[in-house]
Amino acid sequence: MVARNIVPARTAVATPDESLVADLLPPMLVLLATLAGAALGILLLNRWDGNGWAYAIILLLILVTATSDRLRRQGQLQWSSITIVTATTLLPILSCTAFGFTDNNFVYLSVLGVFAAGIMVSSRAPYQATQAAILLYIILLLAADVIGQPRPTWFSAIGKILFLVILLLSAATLSWAAAYVVRGTINWAIDTAQKSERREQLLRETQATLERALLEWDLLNEQLYRTTLELEEARAAAEAAYRSKSNFMATMSHELRTPLNIIIGFSTAMIEHPEMYGDVKIDEQVLQDIAEIRRSGQHLLGLINDILDLAKIEAGKLELNRTNLALPPLLDETIRTAQALIGDRPIQLRREYHDSLPTVLADEVRIRQVLLNLVSNACKFTHMGEIAVGARAETDQVVLWVRDTGIGIAPADQERIFQQFEQVENADTRHHAGTGLGLSICRWLIELHGGRMWLESEVGKGSIFFFSLPRTRSGPDGSRTA
């Protein structure tokens, strides 16, 4: 699986400072406006006439509050918070101009500005605000005569400054710690929110992918259904054509056999019984031509019989007359037929079976047809050496074979020769022309019996055609069954 970096499309998330300032500015502005109004009201009710600095400080606080609110509304949150922090830190120090240095507790309100600086501005702002407040306090102390306030003793002034420094530095430290915790919490919350958004986006993409996959699956199912219907129609048409072909082959075979039997019968009679024509003497050349007619007719009849068997097998109409078949007499008959086919060629026939072979459940006519076909092929393609017919009993079957020392069959052709109308191309096959149906029909007949047929061969050394047949077994009542 290939890893992908998923960057979800989302709206910009505010930084921790902006998010915190946006939440704190409105209540701070309301608080400052309330304090300014309350202080102004108290001065007016008490008819304060000590000096004008008190009114100036309150008006400055109102002006700062209005300016900060305006900056907030314009979206300049950083400058708005700096304005408030500066005012809340320095205006209490400026109260010395109105209330003096000795008993003025308003200066300690600058702690609020220092504490707010860490949360609303930055982590360094509390210490900067502390420095500004101490510096302003020292300046006002040195200019006490200018602002019209009595100068305290140096001992009192130094103690006042030290206390104010300690108080403001403590507030700055607390503000820094509080800002660190608050910003860490906000960063964690925002990071968690961003991760949640990424997971949500990934889930959406996964859901979209699944929906596309399901849609493609539906389309493939529909296509498969249409293809299946088309295949069913094609299969039905092919089966109909196959049945038509088989019926045509069976019909034509039956129609051709009758005139061929007549041709073969008359030609045989003319050759073997010329006396039936009286004193008419048939010329030797004519007899040779009639013999060729008989041979060609017999070849054509064999071809038609093979086609008829093939048509019956393909149409499923070939019925087997199964009986408990004793194999030794059938094998003896096959050897006698092979002897007649060999003639005077230097070929030795071998008998590789015992008379104690068990019976098999098979159709005698069809098994004889298989054996004769295999022996006939062995005689055609063996010029010297030996031909053997054998059988052996196994646990649940009997294996039969026909072995020869003929030309052999190449490995590439060993499976092909069992197909319809297939023959190995060589000089012997051209000399002994055949239909190419014999072996395919033999294999089908053996498979119909519940057995199988196979071949072992080597070019130049000969071939062995094997086939198996199921043995008969004794039933509970003593009957013989497959």
TrEMBL record:
Transmembrane regions listed in the UniProt entry: 24-45, 52-71, 77-99, 106-123, 129-149, 161-182
Q: Known Pfam families for this protein? A: HATPase_c, HisKA
Q: Does the keyword Transcription regulation apply?
A: no
The highest taxon in the source lineage is Bacteria
**Gene3D superfamilies cross-referenced by the UniProt entry:** 1.10.287.130, Histidine kinase-like ATPase, C-terminal domain
- What's the name of the protein? histidine kinase
Q: Which GO terms describe its cellular component?
A: membrane
